[in-house]
Amino acid sequence: MNQTVPRLSKLPFLIGDVLLIAAAIYVAQFEAFLGQWQYVAIISALAFGAWLFAWPFVLEFRAATKIAEASALDDVTAKIQDLDKVTSSIASAILEWQHLQQSSTQFVTSAQHVAEQMTDEARRFGELMSKLHENEKNHLRLEVEKLRRAEGDWLGVTVRMLDHVHALHTAGVRSGQRNVIEQLGSFQNACRDTARRLGVVPMLPESDVPFDVERHRLLDGAKPAPGALVGDILAPGYTFQGQVIRLPVVSVREVKEEKPKAEDAQLSFDEAGS
């Protein structure tokens, strides 16, 4: 704030100063013999004149000082007001920060609550999926067991049918009728081809070969004598998808050693005697 310093008229002070100086000069010139009181009057007039000359400047300095103090006070007041504004701004900022902090706290709390709910939902979903997976596994296991049981059932039926066809063909062969043998042979081959498409392949061992417990089987499950040979095929063996489900059932015959004739024995005896 700019303030104008009041101007004091110095003319009356100058006139008074001139009059006092003139009075002092008059006393000094027109008095032949100066007494004590004349010197006092001259000195007093000069001193009062000097004071009167300087007093306007003192008043102006005081006024300027007061104006400067008032200006400084106005600046301080303005700064104080600015400080009040800054304080208000700081207080408002603190309130906004507290509000923001409260909002952040509420947001974090809400986020934690949502995270907990998501965790619970994920756990429940995992448990549900585990139960569904376990139920699905049990259902699939049950279905697999049913399929295996059904597979075993139809595989057993197929093997029995093939055994009956083989027995029928064997009976036809024993009858000696060519037409019956050919018809039953064609029927047996057709049945075996059909079973082969399902994965059931018959195993037909050769006759007159040494009996092997890993490749042959007797009807009663007994073990033949060493050196026994395979005779007739009572029932073929079968494989299903490359796995043996039954070995062929065969009969065996023992190999008899031929005894040397009497002539050969006598000849050998004579040769030994000679």
What gross morphology would you assign?
Answer: rod-shaped
Order of helices and strands: HHHEEEEEEH
Q: Give me the Rg, rounded.
A: 72 Å
Distance between the termini: 172 Å
Strand order of the largest sheet: 1-4-5
- Flag low-confidence runs: 258-274
Q: What is the number of helical segments per DSSP (H or I, 4+ residues)? A: 4
Strand content: 5-15%
Mean pLDDT, to the nearest integer, reads 77
Largest sheet: 3 strands, antiparallel
Helix content: over 70%
Number of strands: 6
Helices and strands: which structural class? mainly alpha
Concise synopsis of the structure shown:
With 274 residues, the chain is mostly helical. The chain has helices at residues 11-30, 36-175, 178-197, 262-273, and strands at 200-203, 217-218, 229-235, 237-240, 243-246, 249-253. It has four helices and six strands; from the N terminus they run αααββββββα.
Description:
The strands form two sheets. This protein has a three-stranded antiparallel sheet. The model is unreliable at 258-274 (pLDDT under 50). 70% of the residues lie in helices and 9% in strands. A hairpin with a 2-residue loop joins strand 4 and strand 5 (243-246). It is mainly alpha-helical and 274 residues long. The radius of gyration is 72 Å and the shape is rod-shaped.
Tags for this entry?
rod-shaped; 70% helix; 9% strand; 274 residues; 3-stranded mixed beta sheet; 4 helices; mainly alpha; 3-stranded antiparallel beta sheet
